[in-house]
Amino acid sequence: MTPLNRSNHPATIHPERVLQFGTGVLLRGLPDYLIHKANQQGIFNGSIVVVKSTGGATDEFAEQDGLYTVVTRGIQKGQTVDKHTVVSAVSRVISAKEDWKAVLDIAKKPSLQVIISNTTEVGIQYVAESIFQNPPQSYPAKLTAFLYERFKNFGGGRSKGMVVIPTELITDNGLKLRDIVEKVAKHNELGKLFMKWLKYHVRFCNSLVDRIVPGKPDAETLLRKQEELGYEDKLLIMAEPYRLWAIEGDDRVKSVLTFAKADPSVVIDEDINFYRERKLRVLNGGHTISVPLAYLLGLETVNEMMLHPLMGRFVEEVITQEIVPTLPEWMIPEENPDAVREFAADVLDRFRNPYIEHLLLSITMQETSKMRARNLPTIQRFVEQQQQVPQRMVLGFAAYLRFMKAVRFEKGAYLGEATTPSGGIITYPIRDDYAEYFFNMWQKVDVHDAASVRNFVHAICDDSALWEMDLRPLSGFADAVAEQLNNLLTLGVEATIERQMATAESTTSGSGID
């Protein structure tokens, strides 16, 4: 089979305008893919030189001249998508460990304008170290060393400043990275002039990336796809159709990041909090409020959850009727008042993607912290707006409490049990920092006594230290959760969902909410 490279698949080589720290699939499936699209449209005309910060060879990239295929598969606007793109934006990949001097030499390129990174959340941490190591260990120290090299080479020229865009999944990633780089610079005594150049001519942008990129498929799928394409690609990756790259920046940033013009999924705005809030509440919150219920029902993946007649309807209604309406109007862009509803439709398509096996149990990790951050503010807003509790979210919260019911502690893990539709018993790990807390609380509960269950729920809801907020003003919430939890324990999961859906439909019809 013909290998994928620039000899067999000619592609234009553009000036190196982007330095990228990281070779991960998210970077290759989102920023690199989007820059490639811009190049194809004659908009950006710049290539990416990639730094492999971790150990390991770069042979596969060299053999393929930086080319790789992104196979996009999923559901978009209700339609099945299955297409591929040969991405040619990467010019070369350099190992920081093997050739740090080559990385520093890139700082001397006048064409360079942008630095992108994804070194995982752990990567943006301060380490007190010398930037003059070969190479420095931490990513912020590597970045500082690179910026200092550029500063020296161009005499601190303002036109040779950089736009730095971390894509690590932490809030205010740009601001945090800037603070750490400044701290590293002070630790290394790089001088006031460098600090001034860093402050005024290097722009650190907060950013938010949103695309599921499972990466390289299994061997059988890879072979089948390569036979379809007619060439061998060791770097082929899979990705969902949906994509978003929101970057916080002003007109100066827009003038540099011209690739944003090539695809509406790249958003440059002075404030990207709306995009972060929308993702947190609708996508992440939709997962968190639904998954324990689906898992207790005996389902295993998000796609199975969406195919199930009861759970699929539950997920759609909890998102569209109870989560979407709670996003503050002042936060929604005036030019697109339907932005949240459109995103919700995209989220439901993403959940229905048959090509991504997203395990429900993996989503339940740290469910308590997720519930606190993603769903409780939504519940609070709903109660304030509608003067009633959100019935579907109440059931989701009750299912979470039931999921957190450990039956034993074994080999360092708290284990829960659930009954499958066929009557079998499944045992599952509760991977949550609050597993012991809930284990102890459940020990006091008589599951056959509704009053005991009610007391348990009220004790949980009254624990303001646990939730970092006071749930007691949410009138009727604890009682509603207690009723649903009692139903889960006595009637079973499926019967409880059926009863709740009928009740919610009746309540919604009576309230005039559409």
Automatic annotation (TrEMBL):
One Pfam family matching this protein: Mannitol_dh_C
Keyword Oxidoreductase among record annotations: yes
All copies of domain Mannitol dehydrogenase C-terminal, residue ranges: 271-487
A GO cellular component entry from the record: cytosol
GO molecular function per UniProt: mannitol-1-phosphate 5-dehydrogenase activity
Domain Mannitol dehydrogenase N-terminal: 17-253
GO biological process: mannitol catabolic process
Keyword NAD: yes
Keywords assigned by UniProt, alphabetized: NAD, Oxidoreductase
NCBIfam families: PRK03643.1
Name of the protein this chain belongs to: Tagaturonate reductase
